[in-house]
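$ fold --in a.seq
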Amino acid sequence: MVGAIIDCIFVEEKKIKNIFLREKDNIFQLKYETVLITRKIKKNYIIFISLCLFISNISRFYVCCFNNVYPSVREEWIKSSLIIIIIFQIISILAGLIEAIVRIIFYL
């Protein structure tokens, strides 16, 4: 789902390459197309940042409401969140280490 949102918001590299290949002889048309793409990219970044801020504020509001309703759970929630973050970091380090070991074994 995140990939679909990113594809809708950002300009593909293929489109930019096609414009450069198609308009390489006509400099004025190339400048015009690049200005249009630049405006579209700026607009899409503004939309993306606004969407991220909106989702972040809704999440922050939810967490604040949850902490006000269940104040005794706050410490446990913070502890469990930190433990989960640390576990995910350890798993990613181990996955990279295993991948490196497998590459070394197969290349020798």
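$ fold --in b.seq
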Amino acid sequence: MLEFLGNLLENIVNFFQTLWDFIINIFQEIVYIIQLLANVVTNIPNYFTWLPSPVLALIILAISIVVIYKVMGREG
């Protein structure tokens, strides 16, 4: 009976440790994705240097708005 209770408590502790690790990993991945998106947005001018400056500014603005809406979870 005591062995059963010991195993039960060990399983409960393992569950909460695994849940905590999962939550930490999700937040780390979200931060990593946001960093990657920031790198892409800052490198956009390098990809379109052949365009005139006003057109480039509009493209950067449009892509920035799209990224913000995607991060916020809004579609359309």
